[in-house]
Amino acid sequence: MGAAGAPGSSNAGDPATAASATSTLESVESLDQANEMDRGLNNRHVQFIAIGGTIGTGLFLGSGKSIALTGPSIVFVYIGVGLVMFMLMRAIGEMMYRDPSQHTFINFITRYLGNGWGKFAGWSYWIVLVLIGMTEITAVSTYFITFFNTFGIDLTPWKWLIELVFLVALATINLVAVKAFGEAEFWFSMIKITLICAMIVTAVVMVVIGYHYNAVQIPGHDGVSPAGSASLANLFDNFSIAPNGWLAFLMSFQMVFFAYEAIEFVGVTVSETQNPRKVLPKAINEIIMRILIFYVGALLAIMCIVPWTSFQPNKDGSFASPFIMVFQYAGLNWASALVFFVVITAASSSLNSLLYSAGRHLYQLASESESPVFSKIGVVSKRRVPARAILISAACVLMSPVINAFPQVHSAFVLFSSASSAVIIFIYILTMLAHQKYRRSADFIGDGFVMPAYKFTNTFAIVFFVFIYVTLFLADDTIGSGVAGLVWLAVFGGYCLLHDRFQNRDLKAALRG
């Protein structure tokens, strides 16, 4: 597995022995002997890539549904889930700090849990990325059409062309150089951050002056939103942890969890980052502050302006964007166009990152393959990017408009893609289990980027991920995902483990012969 096969990687010693291995920390240069990638990402790029990984379209469009579920207590859910995701990132960060030549954190699953689980996680994660990419390219074209609809321009007939142009543009950015990808993500993140900060500042000013607003028709919302005023009282009046019942409160955890999905993306950039052992800890440690500012800060600002009871579903079950609501109440009638422009940016950022990550994961799978044909994908271009893996991943994402054109195929795709949300929970659990094995192995270094109180924090994170999976069976619209995920684990996971077991048995028999 290239650089993943570090000396002592398969030996598990006792904690005392492992803790004494503080002198075995190898230099990045020595570990990079098998790393063909270009370390073209600097601190600025990684910091904003980490921010981009925590801010998706869900915050701008989907937060209204989560607010409607539990009211102001949704803030505690975001903080709680954010802390658990921070534990996940500390586990990934500790292993990546130990060996920053790895292209993906999935490699540590292979190293510490075996080739069977590594193969399951590697292929599952790549498939998940492609499936999410297919939904993101559809979202990009939908938001693009919505944006131009605000100016009276209907681009619906050109939906397929919009998807093609966006995908080609983002694939080209990924193919040029890793630095080009980093610059694109920097500016994508700047746009998202600017809108969030503008919304928070607008809300603060409205609260300070006691702003009163009239009833208004909000774009994307059925009916007229009632008049009201900006006040902290909107947060505290008749406050309840579970105003809509405890089942709704429990359901909010999975919704928030999936909003944080892809937060682990920064762990895929390490092998292409300058000074990774300096940059990575800083990027990960600041994740919790970003959560507080961008998620919690934005939600508090929204609910100070718009009473949480005002978030009601439309006939089709959708919700109006809370950001549009705040700006409309402030008298900014062009707000919907602005928000959808930023949403296009957020979706493009997600798709850009997914192409980057999918390309690296497919490259890793191909470079480990024993197939002469498939291994040809595991090469880098003259620009030191995995061009073939990126192009194949992009081609798979491009199947989205074709699938959407056939209703029967689309229905099967929706079920399959919904399972991807469940499968990623398995990958998070395997990552935490790999971290536990790392801490008990001879690879562990006590003076690295060590996860604090790992026996408790690691176990707590695993229990939480299991809890999230259980909540999938609490609602009709998510039970299919839960069942499909278990089927995938049993069928594909079982195949990977059995294949690895028989392969090892044949190898042992050959050695005895």
What does this structure look like?
- Helices cover 67% and strands 1% of the residues.
- It is mainly alpha-helical and 513 residues long.
- The chain is globular, with a radius of gyration of 23 Å.
- Strands 1-2 form a two-stranded antiparallel sheet.
- The chain starts with 14 loop residues before the first helix and ends with a helix.
Gross morphology: globular
Structural class: mainly alpha
Distance between the termini: 26 Å
Report on the biggest sheet: 2 strands, antiparallel
**Mean pLDDT across every amino acid position:** 85
Helix content: 55-70%
Q: How many β strands by DSSP?
A: 2
**Count of helical stretches:** 20
Low-confidence stretches: 1-23
> What's the Cα radius of gyration?
23 Å
User: What is the chain-wise order of helices and strands?
Assistant: HHHHHHHHHEEHHHHHHHHHHH
Strand content: under 5%
In spatial order, strands of the major sheet run 1-2
Task: Briefly summarize what is shown.
The protein is built from 20 helices and two strands.
Task: State the main characteristics.
20 helices, mainly alpha, single chain
Produce the secondary structure layout.
Layout lengths: L14 H5 L8 H4 L11 H12 L2 H14 L3 H25 L7 H8 L1 H35 L9 H18 L1 H31 L3 E2 L14 E2 L3 H4 L9 H14 L16 H10 L1 H19 L16 H8 L5 H34 L18 H11 L1 H6 L2 H33 L14 H18 L4 H37 L1
Antiparallel strand pairs: 1-2
